[in-house]
Amino acid sequence: MCTYTTSTLSLLGNAKSGQSWERVKTASVYLDHPVAFPATHSLNIDLFADQDDPKRTAALELSPRSAKALAEAILAMIAEAPDGLIDEG
Amino acid sequence: MTDHVVLGEEIAFRGAQGDWIEGFFARPLDLVSMGSVVVIHHMPGYDEATKEIALRFARHGYAALMPNLYFREAPNAAPDDAAAIARSKGGVPDERLIGDVAGARDFLLRQPHANGKSGVIGYCSGGRQAFLSGCELPFDAVVDCYGAFVVNQPPAESPLKVSAVIDRAAKLNAPVLGLFGNDDSYPGPEEVNALDAELTKLGKSHEFHRYDGAGHAFFNTAAPSYRPEVAKDAWGHIFTFFAANLEA
Question: What Pfam family is a match, any one (chain A) (predicted)?
Fold first, then answer.
């Protein structure tokens, strides 16, 4: 299937692509066909420094199980953060 | 005949609003009369696998043009990067799609060896777009390869500029060939049933082939969803359908 379903969000962070770091501002998250990962579906994350510049993007294609584990690990790390760290930026 | 000498090349042509956009133009060099086929790429974009499809039509004696629907968002970008950018911006608006397909059709019909007949075929999101194009433009043949959201509305929270197009089906001018995998969820078998029923109700000529053991994207040789036996059978139906409707 081709889900079309996409979550887009603004974010604040940096991503490294090639040899340079970019300040990323937006992201797309979707479960759909991968370009490179050898499966019919993957959880895909595109990070954009500038939505008008296709050279300044970083992309992830994860097996859905891996994506779930990654998301849980991220949430667990954030849940364990000392008070005051999470709202720093 | 599948042994025509062919040329495939990147060109620029005028699409919606008269914009110059990129397209992949493939044609046989050894024929003086040929039908025209607009090829609409799948959601992953203007990629090598879909250019191979355009070349295949040329080898079978048709002139084919595939518009790069993401050219405006990401000119000259790699297909995966362009698809990511286009998705993040909400995809391709339907009115622009119709303009780009109309421009591609006009380009093909202006070629000196065009026989005046034109078809449109699309894969995945392009299946829906091919159906939409058949409702809005005077094509002679329409092929919908597993296009979702022709009948069903996409989820309300979807940021993509896509909506069902079945309410335009009364305007269809051309016969429709539909090719679907029974294991697909978008479109699922119920949506295909509903499309079949609606076209029957409207008296629109259509021919559907529905395959067990195949899901979405069974034509895509570059993906694990490829089903060679199904694709071979379905390609046969496409060429039979085009021979009946696009040869002068």
Answer: DUF6295
Confidence of residue B170 (pLDDT cuts 50, 70, 90): very high
Question: Within 10 Å of residue B173's Cβ, how many Cβ atoms?
Answer: 13
| Assigned domain for B1 exists | no
Residue B200 pairs with which residues in a beta bridge? none
Global ipTM: 0.75
Segment among A60-64, A81-85, B129-133 with least mean pLDDT: A81-85
- Report chain B's C-alpha Rg in angstroms: 17
Q: Is A61 on the interface with B (CB under 8 A)?
A: no
Cβ contact A3–B84 (<8 Å): no
CA dist B17 and B30 (Å) reads 34
- Touching check for B164 and chain A: CB below 8 Å? no
Question: What letter does residue B205 receive in the DSSP assignment?
Answer: -
Quote the domain boundaries for residue A43.
6-63
Residues B15-54: pLDDT tens digits? Answer: 999 999 999 999 999 999 999 999 999 999 999 999 999 9
Name the domain count of chain B. Answer: 1
Domain assignment present for residue B96? The answer is yes
CATH number of the domain within which B20 lies: 3.40.50.1820
B87–A39 CB contact, under 8 Å: no
Closest by Cβ to B44, choosing from A26, A33, A52? A33
Would you call B226 an interface residue with chain A, using a CB distance cutoff of 8 Å? no
